[in-house]
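Contributing new complexes? Match this layout with flavin-adenine dinucleotide.
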Amino acid sequence: MSEFAWRNFDLYNPTPEHKMIRETVRAFVESEVEPQALEHDRREKFNLSLFRKLGELGLLGITVPEEYGGTGQDALAAVIVHEEISASDPGFCLAYLAHSMLFVNNLAVNGNEDQKKKFLPGVCSGELVGCMAMSEPAVGTDVLGLESTANLQGSEYIINGRKMWITNGCLDDEGTPADLVWLYARTGEKNGKPQLSTFLIEKGFPGYEVGQKIKDKTGMRASNTAELVFTNCRAPKHALVGHEGASVHHMMRNLEIERVTLAAMSLGIARRSLEAMNRYAQERSAFGKSLSHFGQIQRHIAESYAEYKACRAYVYETARRMDLNSGGNRLDSDGVKLITTTLAKNIADRAIQVLGGYGYVGEYVVERLWRDAKLLEIGGGTLEAHQKNITRDLAKSPGAILD
Ligand SMILES: Cc1cc2nc3c(=O)[nH]c(=O)nc-3n(C[C@H](O)[C@H](O)[C@H](O)COP(=O)(O)OP(=O)(O)OC[C@H]3O[C@@H](n4cnc5c(N)ncnc54)[C@H](O)[C@@H]3O)c2cc1C
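Output block (do not edit by hand):
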């Protein structure tokens, strides 16, 4: 490598493959995602046929090794895909993330050989849709307090409990359940601590059904959210992932990619909002000048640009260092989600302000982005949870500040 070769290094498209993935997804988004986004938001509809096309493009198993039907890409590739889709339709992108990161990647890194061989090809192609069920009506952040139970009786686990807020929990308004659920339930206690275990629940297991379909969400309306109900649900012993009590390990291994891709979704929202306000400020005149001549508008645009660029570099640098199989960097995956989610909400808010009344209606996109952005400060870990984790991690490893 020549002395100055690093100067050609592109942080955002480091390899020709990454560049190609971005171009492919961008073209797909322009031709297929963008035209349906507003309508699906308004009608609160998940576009399942469009989702299955992501399988044809190899995006549903983006991080899964090729031998199981995936594309074998890294965390950076996953970030690129989420950033590009979310710049158009964050709601649709959330359904994609719930499937490809919360279910598919989880299975790829934590499942056993039989489970991977049985389910990964179907979820990578889009034939099967997956979801991840951790939250419950009374338990969110305090995950160790979850109340759903799974008790081994003979050759089956008997599962009881309710799961709340599950993205892809149902696939349509008729309440068709997801084909597969990555489920966390309590299997007892050890040393006074709850033992959480992970199960692969298949559509058709007796006692598994969709409860309430959650409607009238503020944003992310192009994704379905549902309550799942387990009433003496019978799951064969081999539905257990790993061993009893392994859930915390599973969560830790997948958490990093979940948070970094949620941050990438925020980047997409921020970028699109910034583009919209920049363009509008040039085109719209007031008092005989374009809006871009006014200092207060300049502040909205300039601060948004600089903050967006700083966050983008942090997200890409964190993804670049990520090892999909270890999930060890909680500090920065919390860090990028903490900062970019609020960034996206703030930039979308400024964009509405710059667009004035036009910003407040659907045609100009930013109101939808603003509504969608808020969820990212809650789902996949609240801001307060990230603040707690970061402070704890820095107390344990103060040297991380110098890294
Ligand atoms: C649209 C949508 C989609 C979702 N998709 C999924 C999904 O696919 N799968 C899934 O399992 N879940 C999903 N969730 C659930 C989401 O992850 C939870 O809402 C989130 O983890 C917060 O849990 P909670 O709502 O129970 O709030 P709580 O945990 O009850 O928190 C309420 C408030 O208290 C704060 N708080 C709690 N504990 C502390 C503390 N120790 N210190 C300081 N503040 C604290 C929180 O930060 C928050 O501000 C989704 C939620 C929504 C709205």
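Reviewers usually confirm one structural detail per submission. For this one: Residues 98, 102, 131-135, 140-141, 165-167, 217, 220, 225, 375, 378-380, 382, 384-385, 388 surround flavin-adenine dinucleotide (CB under 6 Å).
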